[in-house]
Amino acid sequence: MTVSQRFDTFLANIALTSEQLAEGSKKHGGVLSTLNRNYYGYNSDTANGIVVGSWGKDTKVRPARDIDVLFILPYSKYLRFEKRLGNKQAQLLQEVKDVLQKTYSTTAMRADGQVVVVSLGGHVVQIAPVFLLENTQYWICDTNDGGKYRTLDPNAEIGAIQASDATTGGNTRNLIRMMKIWQRVCDVPIKPFVLELLVIEFLNSYAHKSHSSPHYDWMVRDFFAFLLTKNAISYVVVPGTGELIWLNSADWNSRAETAHAQAEKACAYESPNAPHSAGREWHKIFGDDIPTDDVGGGTRNPDTNTP
Could you tell me if 58 and 91 are in contact, meaning their C-beta atoms sit under 8 angstroms apart? Predict the structure, then answer.
């Protein structure tokens, strides 16, 4: 099995099926339709909604994670809640939850920090009520510490992924998807959003960022090496708002060290007639979705360590 065959199969295995995509769209479309009827007086499963997160950025993997959706409320609702006392953001989330509960009367849901979490069978739709600002950014509820609004720029976040993906020939989204599998399989305590920003930062300066799947083993290995350069004073910058997210690298450093060592072994084994199994090493990182069949060996000179 060649490196290209292994990683192309891996990416195919973690991609959502057409049925899963259709079901996910149906679920969050139904939630949007309910909110549009209540707040705008008409049925629409797309209007006033922005799909964000992994579904909006096209970085989702199988099995499907939460579907994150922003719902733009009328400005009049902001004015109405500003007249209230107490945690206005918590009250707003509760109202949105109550609206949805009328339609989804037997569905488990809860208001949680910034979103209303709606559990619909195999999908979880997280609805975040927002207000559109004049600069095309949004205010999103934050019920913590007495309640406040936080600024969000989903268009900038999606644009950062798209721009990086365009300059890397699709490698940005592919590496993000693979790293999300590592995160899940190895129980890595790092948020998917932070992982996405780290992938973009890594590929921005990676000399071989546009090489295709025959070199994905090296790209994965080198990303883990990049993670190990992060320390307690490292941070990522949120696109659009410029907010700094400080990294707790101590939480995941040991897992990155282990994955890097395993990836180094796998890269060495991805050579013609290698006596060891590269597949077994990749399996430790990515689990059952990556093929472990090593019949035939790799396709590169074992003494070559760069693309």
Answer: no
CA distances 78 to 144, 160, 195, Å, are 18, 29, 33
Closest-CA residue to 161 (of 213, 198, 116, 115):
198
Looking at the chain, how many residues does it have?
A: 307
HSE-CB of 297 using CA atoms within 13 angstroms:
12
Of 188, 189, 229, the residue nearest 205 (C-alpha): 229
Contact 282, 220 (CB under 8 A): no
Q: How far apart are CA 34 and CA 44, in angstroms?
A: 8
Determine the distance from the C-alpha atom of residue 289 to the mean position of all C-alpha atoms in its chain, rounded to a whole number. Answer: 18
Q: Which of 232, 229, 206, 217 shows the shortest CA–CA distance to 291?
A: 217
Chain segment 185-236, per-residue pLDDT in tens: 999 999 999 999 999 999 999 999 999 999 999 999 999 999 999 988 899 9
Interstrand relation of 67-72 and 49-52 (parallel, antiparallel or unpaired): antiparallel
What's the rounded Cα separation, in Å, for the pair 268 and 15? 27
Q: How far apart are CA 215 and CA 217, in angstroms?
A: 5
Tokens of 212: 């295709």
DSSP state of 64: P
The residues pairing with 237 across neighbouring beta strands, listed in sequence order, are: 244
Neighbour tally for 261: CB within 10 Å: 14
- Residue 136 contacts residue 152 (beta carbons within 8 Å): no
Tokens of 304: 């070559």
Predicted model pTM: 0.91
Q: Round to whole Å and give the CA distance between 279 and 4.
A: 13
